[in-house]
Amino acid sequence: MSDVVIFETLECENGKKIGIATLNSEKSLNALSGDMIDALFPQLSLWKEDENIALVLLQGAGEKSFCAGGDIVKLYNEMKSHPGDYAPAIEDYFTKEYKLDYLIHTFNKPFIVWGNGIVMGGGLGMMVGASHRVVTETSRIAMPEISIGLYPDVGGTYFLNKMPESCGLFLGLTGASINASDAKYTGLADFFMLAEKKSVFVEQLKSVNWGNTVALNHDKLNDLMHEHELMSNAQLPVSHVRANKALIEHVTAGDDFADIVNAIVTCEVEDKWFNRAQKSLKHGSAISGHLVYRQLVQGKSLSLAECFRLELGLSVKCGQYGEFFEGVRALLIDKDNNPSWKYSSIAEVDEEVIDWFFTSKWSADEHPLAQLGK
């Protein structure tokens, strides 16, 4: 049985090394399992401190996907064994995942994520934290949690708030799929390269004169990646988000959440991308919609570590409440695509229920992520 993550080091011409980590589960589209996290965290921590490692590359096996999300089926089984109750394994998984994401965000050394193919949920959580985030002509990125009764976690509270005005709210609410140009426009990616150029790019990394000064190594990597991007730009797809920016701002204007949702779903426009986004919101979980809206409002002034602490509380509550369980059942287990949501509309949701989600089950000192960022 192959390792869930394959680790290797490449020797550079000047003696420095490149650490390469490959998520190795093509059958699951490299979905981020607990075993993967358990392998990644200690190895990345070692590479972070190893003076011989100049930079790190994180990628997915195969051509279809970097990482299509978290190990949702396993989380479903944990919720099934703890119906309506706190599930320790849910807390354990998300705690480890957010620690891994935070490590990547704060890695210091150049850290490349090759975001080829499908990048969703947990995959985006890893990619967005990297210093050098690559998208290709096949990249398909989304945070479609509203369709499974969850919310955009893995730092979404932080990075959705960093997007151009209203884009984060729109993408979080609709789970809309975006391409490479969209990812660059919204700040989720840095560089566009053609997928076929990857092997050439990796070979060129070996010839760079890496040193011991982290800032200079970042500059050297930037220069090389800009060269590749200039050769690839002719094949950049059209950005759906940029093309619809004025419309997105219009439908998300105002302070009443129910009015915003109504404006999005009732807007009459002939645009396949926008229409798919409308459909996802219309059929998604009303509770998830409220979680998205409030997480972004509350998260505007939070640090990255504080965002992860907020999200861990929300994720544990999602594992307990039942909406997440029902969403996964309908989409991935029974595959009837007919979830029985607790509320049929945004307007019907009891605000006290949302208050419960945002009430932490831990004191500040007891929080599993209390030491994050300290």
From TrEMBL:
GO cellular component term, pick one: cytosol
Q: Which InterPro entries match?
A: ClpP/crotonase-like_dom_sf (IPR029045), ECH_dom (IPR045004), HIBYL-CoA-H (IPR032259)
Q: What is its EC number?
A: 3.1.2.4
Which part of the chain is the Enoyl-CoA hydratase/isomerase domain?
A: 18-358
Q: Does the keyword Nucleus apply?
A: no
The record ties this protein, via CDD domains, to: crotonase-like
Which EC class heads this enzyme's classification? Answer: hydrolase
Transmembrane domains' residue ranges: none
An example GO biological process term is: L-valine catabolic process
Q: What is this protein called?
A: 3-hydroxyisobutyryl-CoA hydrolase
